[in-house]
Amino acid sequence: MNSPGKASIDLNTRPQVTPFFDEATNTLSYIVKDPASNACAIIDSVMNLDYPSGSISFTAADQLIDFIRGNKLELQWILETHVHADHLSAAPYIQQRLGGKIAIGTHITVVQQTFGQVFNAEASFARDGSQFDRLLADDDSIQLGSMTGRALHTPGHTPACMTYVFGDAIFVGDTLFMPDGGTARADFPGGDAGILYQSIQRILSLPGQMRIFVCHDYLPNGRELEYETSVAAERQSNIHVHEGVSQADFVAMRKARDVTLGMPTLILPSLQVNMRAGHFPRAEDSGTVFLKLPVNAFGGADITALIAPGDKS
């Protein structure tokens, strides 16, 4: 992995960062504002889903929209750090109301290939990332007003994970949590604990005073919400990957921990929507949109004998 060049870091620029917390999914979305203009970006928006009823709402997204309109900001980018497995993206809903370009890492194509097969997606589902306005390669620049941000490819949690750097602010997606929360799991298809460790080291090689903003906070030990830390604090006290933790030790810890974790509640609907840049599959002839529940896609008991006889090939 290439390390980010010094030219990609501007510690003298301190963007205004406003967090929005979705309690149902423990997700943090951010509005990042250029300090020298009204240009802004949204990172990791949320579309609300009531899973038992299948009902969609836009409470979380409307908070972002209201803030941008209320402060007379210009939305230029709607950035996704990766294809989330725990919440649905509201990117197209926001874009329809405020404009901006939807962007994700170039390795989205790997995720689309993988989960296009898992969900037996329709033939019209493009697996080339064309649902997004821009695909960002490692160390690509992102112009936000007067700021030039950088996109860093930081895989391991998923193959397509990106970290976004604007001035002194780093947005790490699920790669790192607050120091007492540790690190992302690495057992999803395409995940790799060793690669995750290397990606984290890349982030922690940045200047210690840089601010880190996490995508999730699960309020460990019942504490209050936290969302901002620093490179130095993560190096010193992250419970999974502080200084002195070797890659071998990290991989062993991650593998032992990951097998104890259940699947995220919204993983099946989230992946189907997020691999389409926040869009739903086409409606069926009845006009109803359906999301699939692939039985045993992530393991389970043999159900061959339970398939209705008339449905067996």
SSE blueprint:
Elements: E1 16-22, E2 27-33, E3 39-43, E4 48-50, E5 55-57, H1 59-70, E6 74-79, H2 91-98, E7 101-105, H3 108-118, E8 134-136, E9 140-144, E10 147-153, E11 162-166, E12 169-171, H4 193-204, E13 211-213, E14 228-230, H5 231-237, H6 247-258, H7 267-274
Parallel strand pairs: 3-6, 6-7, 7-8, 12-13
Antiparallel strand pairs: 1-2, 2-3, 4-5, 9-10, 10-11, 11-12, 13-14
Helix pairs in contact: 1-2, 4-6
Write a brief structural summary.
It contains seven helices and 14 strands. It is an alpha/beta fold and 313 residues long.
Q: Would you mind describing this structure in some detail?
A:
The protein has 313 residues and is α/β, with parallel strands linked by helices. It has one domain (16-278): Ribonuclease Z/Hydroxyacylglutathione hydrolase-like (Metallo-beta-lactamase, Chain A, 4-Layer Sandwich), CATH 3.60.15.10. It is built from 7 helices and 14 strands. The protein has helices spanning 59-70, 91-98, 108-118, 193-204, 231-237, 247-258, 267-274, and strands at residues 16-22, 27-33, 39-43, 48-50, 55-57, 74-79, 101-105, 134-136, 140-144, 147-153, 162-166, 169-171, 211-213, 228-230. The strands form 3 sheets. A 6-stranded mixed beta sheet has the order 1-2-3-6-7-8, with helices on one face. The longest helix is centred in the N-terminal third of the chain and has 12 residues, at 59-70. The protein is globular. The model is unreliable at 1-7 (pLDDT under 50).
